[in-house]
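re: ur msg from earlier - yeah i can do the flavin-adenine dinucleotide complex, just paste it... oh wait u already did. ok heres what im feeding in:
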Amino acid sequence: MPRKAKRARSPEEAASSDGGGETLLEGVARSRLRAGSSVLAFAFNKKRVRLVSSSSELKEASGGISYWMSRDQRVQDNWAFLYAQRLALQQKLPLHVCFCLVPKFLDATIRHYGFMLKGLQEVAEECKELHIPFHLLIGLAKDVLPQFINEHDIGGLVTDFSPLRVPLQWVDDVRKNLPDDVPFVQVDAHNIVPCWFASSKQEYGARTIRKKIHDQLPQFLTEFPAVSRHPHNSKFTAEQSVDWDACYASLQVDRTVGEVDWATPGGTAGLRVLQSFIGERLKFFNTDRNNPNKAALSNLSPWFHFGQVSVQRAVLEVQKYGGKFRESVDAFIEEAVVRRELADNFCFYNETYDKLEGAYAWARNTLKDHTKDRRTHIYTLEQLEAGKTHDPLWNAAQLQMVHEGKMHGFLRMYWAKKILEWTSTPETALKYAIYLNDRFELDGRDPNGYVGCMWSICGIHDQGWAERAVFGKIRYMNYAGCKRKFDVEQFERRYHPKKFSH
Ligand SMILES: Cc1cc2nc3c(=O)[nH]c(=O)nc-3n(C[C@H](O)[C@H](O)[C@H](O)COP(=O)(O)OP(=O)(O)OC[C@H]3O[C@@H](n4cnc5c(N)ncnc54)[C@H](O)[C@@H]3O)c2cc1C
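and the outut:
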């Protein structure tokens, strides 16, 4: 008797497969190999690269090429890593990866450091398998990296790109301390269209950058070749294998903001989240992404923020479902590409990206006009942090962030706008919002966060609306509006203070 033909699996079944069929991780590994088993033969788009140093000539016969990993903490799907390997292969040199760990960074807590270190541990293991020594250098890059380059006669340095002022300063400091004959380049491995290429100026909003980005996608939204096993052995290996536990114990960070258990650190776990998004939530993304009670979001922001998952990879995978979930795929590309790259654009071209001075004149003026308006409530930072306001929805959102490290995207807007309403000045509101966001959100300290707070409080990338007290012409949001959009009480019950009273 002929066997019954096996039913073809739907895209969602394939995407959510974790047994039997090919998983997203396996499919991704195969796609990379199809694009190129080595970056040497791959047509690398040099527009992703910009020269930081004055010298551009690689020294001959040096001790190797180094990739200084910073924002993009992953091996595969990383254009900066790939470019460094390409240089090393062209010169037949060893490749070394360095990560400079500062034991204390702004107000980062163990929630952030724990996630980062565990992700880096996975990076180190993957590097080992590929015969690429991974060096965890403890200290500021300007102190430890040039020393490493000198000691090991490194002939060229590649790093990734962040538009934020501290990492930009790190790059500049390293540049000044490098030997003159070591070329130093930066590769935008975070954005699909390199930030400096997408636009040469601060864009007014999504409507002015959207077309610029979409026009460039055909040349940049390509498959990645694989970072391959490196054939050129180094004369030296990593000084010793990293003692990750000792490293974790030595951090001088606030341990009162604990790690969260829903988000497993590392690229492998991140790609599994992408798989579950495609298999289970993508179909609801267009219709339900503004409903905090529904599981419709990707949840990928922590892995994107630490560079453990490449946004480009996520988009490549998500767009395969365009035939089935067109609106959701388009909405995801709008958020993950247009809005996210707009945030990088803002921070790169606006030095005061986290200050009221960084806002447009209309927004600064309208906020100033209303500074003296009477507030119905004024809360201290401590009251806000503890989620002790009169508004149960705001408190619930705050508690979600404090305890889970990720507030729902829709509520982030409401949350920040209420801080404007309940503090004495817009400057204070912005300061408090950024402080709380960066302290508790696992994806905090990100261009998206500064822009999110600036959008909510200072009208960045937005337009003027009907004038009202305190907000002036800044877009207003209220509890009644939220009630019209979703079951507010359900959310309030889920994050009720009683649930966290222990
Ligand atoms: C006040 C405020 C603070 C915010 N703070 C942060 C922050 O610290 N870090 C952060 O990554 N995002 C921040 N955002 C933007 C957005 O809310 C989050 O990126 C999103 O909620 C993350 O969840 P997700 O990955 O499930 O998003 P999804 O909805 O699944 O979106 C996918 C990706 O698109 C990008 N994205 C989504 N919405 C936006 C947006 N409005 N602007 C820019 N990029 C976006 C993110 O990279 C996100 O991971 C903030 C927004 C506001 C209004």
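cool cool. Residues 1-14 have pLDDT under 50 and may be disordered. ping me if u need the other ligands too
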